[in-house]
Amino acid sequence: MSAVVQYLQHLAAERRLSPHTVAACQRDLANLSRLTAGKALAELEVGDIRGAIVKLRSQGLAAASVARQLSSWRGFYIFACRRLGYIRNPCTGLRPPKAVKSLPDILSPDACTQLLGGRADDDDALAARDRAMFELFYSSGLRLSELTGLDLDDLNLQAGEAQVTGKGRKTRIVPVGRQALDAVTAWLPQRLALMSRRDGIPGEARDDSAALFISQRGGRLTPRSVQLRLDRWARQAGLGQHVHPHMLRHAFATHVLQSSGDLRAVQEMLGHASISTTQVYTHLDWQHLAKVYDQAHPRARKKD
After folding, report:
1. What is the pTM of this model?
2. Which domains are present in the chain?
3. Which of 35, 173, 198, 243 is at 20 to 30 A from 105, Cα to Cα?
4. Between β-strands 155-156 and 161-165, what pairing exists: parallel, antiparallel or unpaired?
């Protein structure tokens, strides 16, 4: 078994990373072999890795993408040195190029109200499903994969909360707002009707029967389907801009932070491993935060 295969199995089985992350790491390691002319990974030195980085930059690859690939390479060599007997880590001491941090696109509270107040011109089942999905996105700050992975048992309507499975298969409990609860409650009878319709189709698979959000054919809704439905809702609501699911997650984080100022609470609700990831939202409305500071800090108050 090759070293790369062992590492990928380690990522999937021991670190429990998502298939998407494992596949990306596999591509990064394959790219490293290509950039170093097929030289054995165990024989690479610091100069080889540095040369690979230079090649990536000369190809016009963004600094963030280069940094991600270097991170994949470094992770492989740490594993190989600890588990496979590699004698050196050629990534030691190498720093990724600095990337300019761009602020995420968000929707204002008024835009969210406009979006969620709209209605797709579809039958009641699809409209009820879509409204429930988008309300949950905004209410609970879910990732797209977390929403599509929700099962019926993950939602507690009485307690107003949901258990979601995030990155690294880590679970967390998130609050679900009143309007999202109402939307989900309206969707459940429609979902039951779709499932009953599917049961009458011979040969239909039953492995998605626990999914909270399903398609017309009764299968678990795919992430791509959710993206297309949200973009359609945004156009029909007249927002005049492309809207993707992560924008609702960003809107959740920004609006809660603006109202509460509690960065740690927002970190927990978003499922961020590091608070530095959450801190990007503190830059989205600096004027608001500066006003809070001026009003709250005794040394910042202006003289009359």
Report:
1. 0.63
2. 3-83 (1.10.150), 109-290 (1.10.443.10)
3. 173
4. antiparallel
